[in-house]
Amino acid sequence: MRPRPRRWSEHELVEAVTTSCSLAEVMRRLGYQPGRGIYRLLVGHIKRLGLDSSHFTGQSWARGHKFPGRSVLPLSEILVLNSPYTNTGRLRERLIKVGLKERRCVKCSLQRWRGQDLPLALDHVNGDHTDNRLANLRILCPNCHALTDTWCARNRKPA
């Protein structure tokens, strides 16, 4: 079986390598879909021709670029009744970071267990996960959290 002729010349490969930021982009410029069996072939040709690929960013395509991120919702809009904010893990870390809560269980005061930090949980005292008022939030260790009346929606009535 004879090898199929290339779709590109060495000059086109050199141009594609010098103007691309990744091997996937080189493949697209040469008319291939990334991930098809062309990867090994192109790497071999790049090495054979001694082309510089140190400018490739690889899979970290966003490295060095700035993108407008989501604006951070202020705590004054989160710490309310009927809050739309549901990420309790991130809320717990924000409360600890700004000093509104301590990184320790409020029931047993543990911070560490067997030399490691305890994975703490943010508990809603009344069991309503949309009630993010500061008085309704407490930080508990897994053991104390499992012993609460509201753990895993124990306070909800069957439908």
How would you describe this structure to a colleague?
This protein is of the alpha+beta class. It folds into two domains: 40 residues; 79 residues, no CATH class. It contains six helices and four strands. The strands form two sheets. The chain has a two-stranded antiparallel ribbon. Helix 1 crosses helix 2. The mean pLDDT is 86.
**Whole-number average pLDDT?**
86
Beta strands, count: 4
Radius of gyration: 27 Å
Helix content: 25-40%
Largest sheet: 2 strands, antiparallel
Number of helices: 6
Give a brief outline of the structure.
Helices cover 30% and strands 8% of the residues.
Brief descriptors of the model:
two-stranded antiparallel sheet, elongated, 159 residues
Tell me the layout of helices and strands.
Blueprint lengths: L9 H10 L3 H7 L8 H12 L25 H4 L9 H10 L14 E2 L2 E2 L3 E4 L12 E4 L1 H5 L13
Antiparallel strand pairs: 1-2, 3-4
